[in-house]
């Protein structure tokens, strides 16, 4: 990150004290946040959506969450990011909402059966109802 970008990122994070930062600027709280970020960047690079389209969808998701009572302190930002990603993937026909729900439930099942500290591995048994 260049010095002006670093300063801009740090200034932006001061406006939302719930966003974690280090000396270089904003950081991810959890690995899944970085994964969601990377998926959006990759899908954009592959032409699934434009950045203006992404920004508009994310802004709409955040506005909806605020209207539903989200305090918007920065700690839910990547939940909005993920919801936007899931919505665009479904809208673009990459995966249906039902498929996304099926995989979400399977990952939850896999996480429940995985001992703490071990990698979560998704298996066929995780898709059983």
TrEMBL record:
Highest taxon above the source species: Bacteria
InterPro entries associated with the record: CN_hydtase_beta-like_N, CN_hydtase_beta_C, Elect_transpt_acc-like_dom_sf, Nitrile_Hydratase_acc_put
TM annotation in the entry: none
Pfam families in the record: NHase_beta_N (PF21006)
All copies of domain Nitrile hydratase beta subunit-like N-terminal, residue ranges: 19-103
Protein name: Nitrile hydratase beta subunit-like N-terminal domain-containing protein
């Amino acid at each position: 990150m260049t010095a002006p970008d670093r300063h801009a990122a740090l200034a932006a994070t001061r406006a939302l004290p719930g966003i974690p930062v280090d000396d270089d600027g904003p950081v991810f709280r959890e690995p899944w946040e970085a994964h969601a970020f990377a998926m959006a960047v990759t899908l954009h690079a592959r032409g699934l959506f434009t950045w203006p389209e992404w920004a508009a969808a994310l802004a709409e998701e955040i506005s909806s969450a605020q209207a539903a009572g989200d305090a918007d302190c920065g700690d839910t930002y990547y939940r909005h990011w993920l919801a936007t990603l899931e919505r665009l993937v479904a809208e673009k026909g990459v995966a249906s909402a039902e498929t996304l729900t099926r995989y979400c439930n399977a990952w939850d099942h896999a996480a429940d059966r995985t001992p703490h500290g071990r990698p979560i591995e998704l298996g066929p048994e995780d898709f059983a109802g």
